[in-house]
Design goal:
It is an enzyme of class 2 (transferase). It catalyses: D-alanine + 2-oxoglutarate = D-glutamate + pyruvate. Belongs to the class-IV pyridoxal-phosphate-dependent aminotransferase family. By secondary structure, the protein is α+β, with helices and mostly antiparallel strands. It contains 7 helices and 16 strands. Bound molecules: 4'-deoxy-4'-aminopyridoxal-5'-phosphate. 4'-deoxy-4'-aminopyridoxal-5'-phosphate is lined by residues 151, 176, 179-181, 200, 202-205, 238-240.
Length: 283
């Protein structure tokens, strides 16, 4: 298995993480996870933009420009002969003696690896059970940083409750989930939290927003109260791994009649169509 480390592609076995890497000690870094279908990076431009935005917000300098990084990631996919799966890319501020402020003269460390996963293409839509939990995270979750403890604790709480995802609630308002964005549909209007500092502006969220028109849904980017979420006709979550995930139960209460709703199903179909439009075998 090969990985990309800064500008070079090397065997994974020849790389080790320095104990003084700031990603390791402070969570001082950023990441992206990008799906690959038939060797094609899905929504690559959007992921690339977000990675560079996260870097800018944290004042981390990525050693390559967008074109160079694109070329290297494509080279890695070719070397690994990755057909279906994903690429994980991470950039940390670099390796330095442990001080909190930015160290001087340090170069960032970029690593990327691929993961094969044949199940990456969605066959069946499965209903998802979620719980809600207080959003205890910091107020810059729009940055896709390595600091994920709030997310980890929330997801663990969900798993221990027999659910698949945890919905964050901040001051009575639904923000997003531990590793996904959330949408609620009521009377043909699709609600989701606006893309500000309180949510990660998911790439899948952005794609789904573009698809709403195709399924005759109107968009309303305003936060939902928890009570409003319970009363939605349909609820679904989105992320790179899951795409459109219909929620059938929240805190033990059924969403609608407890079945996967028509809008969620149609959105998922439109999403699959979009993927088909970019993969070589279907073009
Ligand atoms: N919110 C959070 C907190 C996440 O971790 C993720 C997944 N990275 C998302 C939303 C969805 O983002 P995307 O659609 O880009 O995967």
């Amino acid at each position: 298995m090969y990985i990309l480390v800064n500008e070079g592609i090397i065997p994974r076995s020849s790389f080790s993480v320095d104990i003084e890497d700031r990603g390791y000690q402070f969570g001082d870094g950023i990441y992206e996870m990008v799906k690959v279908f038939e060797g094609v990076l899905f929504e690559w431009e959007a992921h690339l933009q977000r990675l560079f935005r996260s870097a800018r917000e944290l004042r981390i300098t990525i050693s390559m420009n967008k074109e160079e990084l694109t070329e290297q990631v494509q080279r890695l996919i070719a070397i690994e002969d990755l057909r279906d799966g994903y690429v994980y890319i991470q950039v940390t501020r670099g390796v330095a003696s442990r001080i909190h402020h930015f160290p001087e003269g340090v170069s960032s460390v970029l690593v990327a690896y691929t993961k094969e996963g044949k199940e990456e293409r969605k066959e069946e839509l499965a209903g998802i059970r979620v719980i809600t939990t207080e959003d205890i995270r910091w107020q810059r979750v729009d940055i896709k940083s390595l600091n994920l403890l709030g997310n980890v604790l929330a997801k663990q709480k969900a798993v221990e409750a027999g659910a698949q995802e945890a919905v964050f609630v901040r001051d009575g308002m639904v923000t997003e989930c531990s590793s996904s964005n959330i949408f609620g549909i009521k009377d043909g209007v699709c609600f989701t939290h606006p893309a500000n500092h309180l949510i990660l502006n998911g790439i899948t969220r952005q794609v789904v927003i573009r698809l709403l028109e195709k399924v005759s849904l109107e968009l309303e980017e305003s936060p939902m109260k928890l009570e409003a979420l319970y009363g939605m006709d349909e609820v679904f979550i989105t992320n790179t791994g899951q795409e459109v995930g219909p929620v059938i139960e929240i805190d033990g209460r059924k969403v609608g009649n407890g079945d996967i709703g028509v809008y969620s199903r149609n959105l998922s179909i439109e999403f699959q169509r979009l993927i088909d439009s970019v993969v070589p075998s279907k073009r």
